[in-house]
Write a structure and sequence with these properties.
Blueprint (H helix, E strand, L loop, with lengths): L8 E3 L7 H8 L5 E3 L24 H8 L8 E5 L8 H10 L4 E6 L2 H16 L14 H10 L1 H5 L1 H9 L6 E4 H6 L1 H11 L5 H4 L4 H5 L13 H22 L14
Parallel strand pairs: 1-3, 1-4, 2-3, 4-5
Helix pairs in contact: 4-5, 4-12
Length: about 260
């Protein structure tokens, strides 16, 4: 049986914006399917990384990966936050492979997202040291983590949205803060966008537990004030551009409020 899309549901980020939580929840829906975990080729059952890690394997590899094993009517999911950074040619290819895919983009206040990304990279570099054993200082190691985390690219919501909307104009944009405040309402939006009935999900025994679960959390390493002011200055243009494009208003404390 032929399928219209390789992937039926695409979540393109943002990185550190509840994408793992949403995938964990939608995986419970009887109408969805998550591909097998082929780590390190894929990142668990969530991120196929076709357009960044695996493109040389070819579109037939991606089709095979994303095809449900039993019921081909299930909607297959690829939640790879790095897809937000794809160029226009890559998104055009995505549209050709997934012409009717439903695309989701969760936007998190840029400074908070950047702090979370830096903490994630700090965890990788420090063997998961306890949060009370380390403060991130403004030094070359911090600047290296800023570069590795591609903060400007991931924070360029306006530019990323512009490219994706050329091919997927009905892309669903969600606000991380609203999703965290009322996850049930956010999930209802996603289900409606993906043409998935709500009742089969909410009736699952594990639904309430997954709705309130935190999936992936880096230790809350404190960042020095200098680090926070640097990040705030780095990202303020991206915040303003995103607010202009989306109409969202990102609530945020002063930079010092992110130190803990």
């Amino acid at each position: 049986m032929s399928r219209e899309n390789h992937a039926d549901i695409l979540c393109i980020g943002a990185q550190r914006a509840m994408t793992s939580w949403l995938h964990h929840l939608l995986s419970l829906h009887p109408g969805t399917w998550a591909f097998p975990d082929f780590n390190p080729v894929t990142s668990t059952r969530k991120e196929a990384h076709f357009w960044d890690w695996n493109h040389q394997r070819g579109s037939e590899w991606y089709r095979f990966l994303m095809t449900p094993l039993d019921d081909h009517q299930l909607k297959s999911m690829d939640f790879t936050p790095d897809y937000a950074l794809m160029n226009e040619d890559q998104i055009a290819e995505c549209k050709a492979l997934n012409p009717s895919a439903r695309v989701i983009y969760i936007l998190r206040e840029p400074l908070a997202r950047a702090v979370s990304a830096i903490r994630m990279h700090t965890m990788w570099a420090s063997d998961n040291a306890p949060a009370d054993a380390l403060e991130v200082a403004f030094d070359q190691a911090f600047l290296d983590r800023v570069r590795a985390a591609r903060l400007l690219a991931h924070g360029d919501y306006a530019g990323n949205l512009w490219r994706w909307r050329q091919h997927y104009p009905d892309l669903l944009v969600l606000d991380y803060a609203a999703l965290a405040a009322d996850p049930g309402a956010g999930v209802a939006q996603v289900l409606d966008h993906c043409a998935l009935a709500q009742q089969p999900l909410v009736s699952q025994p594990d639904y309430a537990e997954r709705l309130g679960k935190r999936i992936w959390h880096a230790p809350d390493y404190p960042l020095s004030t200098d680090c926070l002011h640097f990040l705030d200055g780095l990202l303020w243009r991206e915040r303003e551009a995103a607010e202009d494009v989306t109409g969202l208003r990102f609530a945020r404390p002063e930079p010092d409020g992110y130190s803990k």
